[in-house]
Amino acid sequence: MSLGPYASFIVWSYLLVALVVLILIGWIALDYRQQRARLRELEASGVTRRSGRGVADLS
Amino acid sequence: MTLIDLANPTRFLSLTAKLLPWLAAATAILLAVGLYQSAMAPDDYQQGATVKIMFIHVPNAWLSMFVWGVMSLSALGTLVWRHPLADVSAKAAAPIGAAFTFLALVTGSLWGRPMWGTYWEWDARLTSVLILFLMYLGLIALWRAVEDPSRAARAAAVLTLVGAINIPIIKFSVDWWNTLHQPASVLRMGGSTLDKAFLIPLLVMAVAFSLLFITLHLAAMRNEILRRRVRALQMQQASQPRA
Amino acid sequence: MTALIALLRRDIQVALRIGGGALIGVLFFLIVVVLMPFAVGPDLALLKKLGPAILWLGALLASLLTLDRLFAADHDDGSLDLLTMSRTPLELICLTKAVAHWLVAGLPLIVATPILGLLLNLDGDATLAVALTLLAGTPALTFTGMIGAALAVALRRGGLLLAVLVLPLSIPVLIFGVAASNAAVIEPAGFGAPFSILCALSLAGLVIGPLAAAASLRHGLD
Fold first, then answer.
1. Cβ contact A56:A43 at 8 Å
2. Domain assignment of residue C165, given as a range
3. How many other C-beta atoms are found inside a 10 Å radius of the C-beta of residue A41?
4. Which of A11, B182, C129, C201 has a 20 to 30 A CA-CA distance from C49?
5. For A19, nearest residue in chain B (alpha carbons)
């Protein structure tokens, strides 16, 4: 597939989009793990929720 | 399942846990299909292969406006209907919308260099998107400046709605200003004037990016709900007398 | 009504007295306009061309600086809480405060414009046009700025955040203000349209500004 004389522009565009999207996904995934870890810590130190459900429960 | 059922954060969390894998899979598949179609698309007789940048530039540009629309609806939810998850939705959407706006600007700039010979031009569309990007950043700054999440939510909701009014004004005013100074190079692409060979990959990518936003948004909302739970429990723990 | 008039007089008196008052905005306006030739070069023809834009930018930044004091001083001494709890609608209170602010901070800028126009080698027509557009446009700046001031009122480091929030909202006013000023000089037939849009923006700001500011104050001070 020949990308013509401006190939580097096309490639850079797609690479940057991929990079930013991956950074977004990574940040959200890491944040998720961080919050779950904090919830587990809190559960281990004996904190309870009003509803009585598990602290780190997702349901 | 009505909107009011989703008002319960716990029910929202369990629904999200079930939906996310499917949404992520659908996004991945559509992105793969869209990328393949973009690669296979023919060269434009004027632009050559650089027309392929359109397939990622246009979806990002559409989404940058769409996300502000989602935030505006969430803002109404906060201010008018007091829907509990409206705050969460607005806060989660802002960074994602800012990212799409950034990508729209960057891909547009990289497309502009071969097309117009310049990385940047102060014409109507570019300028309005740049201002939109600044407004996203201002909104994120406001979210972070206020400590209490529900107070931050209300301030952010007002700013979001004022911004929603401002966006068509800016678009319109810059259009007008530009005709006084110099003619803009208008990209002539309307829905039906675009050839099917380009229209189909574009639409597929648009749907793929929209699904990407929905997936990321729900995941980010889940994180925000957990973050608030952590905060509430930490405050509870801090106020408990130690044995 | 008398309550609002009393508020207006109080705000004006306070603004004119405390530490340099709102008139320091005019001083800042002067400094910005003086700085421009140092940055741009003393070429009189260039300054004449850029004149309306420089004056508008100076006025925008000067009014931005003085917006900080719109609610902050009242918030600090507790009178903002009293105002939000009074029987007079908060929207009208915000409107009155904005009018007071414009009288003390915006109007002096317009009065200073002819003098500063001399520094920028603007002729009589151009200066009059800029002054007229400032007259029509500075209310819009005050009203939209008030929204930012209300949002940032409770924040300690509110200053820069206020600027970041308000500037994108002020861009349409700037665009039409400069467009009208330039049109008056280059091609007088084209003055009417941007000028009327500028007036429209001020009128829209008159309605939206107090509504949004009152909403922000109510929600921010809970």
1. yes
2. 2-220
3. 15
4. C201
5. B103
Nearest-CB residue to C151 (from B79, B135, B158): B158
Which two three-digit tokens encode residue C187? Answer: 């091609």
Q: What count of Cα atoms within 13 Å lies in the side-chain half-sphere of residue B207?
A: 12
Q: Mind telling me how many Å the CA of A42 is from chain B's nearest CA?
A: 7
- What is the domain partition of chain B in residue ranges? 21-183+193-232
Query: Considering only CA atoms, which of B60, B141, B93, B96 is closest in space to residue A24?
Result: B96
Q: Which two tokens stand for residue B153?
A: 């939510």
A40: helix, strand or coil: helix
User: Would you mind telling me the total number of residues written for chain B in this entry?
Assistant: 243
Measured CA to CA, the distance from residue C7 to residue C87 in angstroms comes to 13
B48 - beta bridge partners?
A: B44
What's the pLDDT tens digit per position in B83-133? 879 999 999 999 999 999 999 999 999 998 888 888 887 777 888 899 899
Q: Which of A3, A8, A11, A28 to mutate to test the interface with B (most CBs of B within 10 A)?
A: A28
| Measured distance CA(C43)–CA(B188) in Å, rounded | 40
Q: Is C21 left (phi over 0), alpha (psi -120 to 50) or beta?
A: left
Q: Are C70 and C97 in contact (CB under 8 A)?
A: yes
What three-state secondary structure class fits C155?
coil
What confidence tens digit (pLDDT) does each residue in B32-45 have?
999 999 988 888 88
- Site from B123, B135, B148, B169 to mutate, C interface, most C CB atoms within 10 angstroms: B169
Task: Provide the number of structural domains found in chain C.
Answer: 1
For residue C39, pLDDT over 50 is answered with yes
Q: Which two three-digit tokens encode residue C177?
A: 């203000």
**Residues 6 or more apart in contact with residue B23 via CB below 8 angstroms:** B211, B214, B215, B218
B239 touches chain A (CB under 8 A): no
CB B121 within 8 Å of CB B186? no
- In order, the DSSP letters of A1-56 are ----TTHHHHHHHHHHHHHHHHHHHHHHHHHHHHHHHHHHHHHHTT---TT---TT
User: Which subunits have 3 or more CB–CB pairs within 8 Å of chain C?
Assistant: B
Number of H helices, E strands in chain C: 10, 0
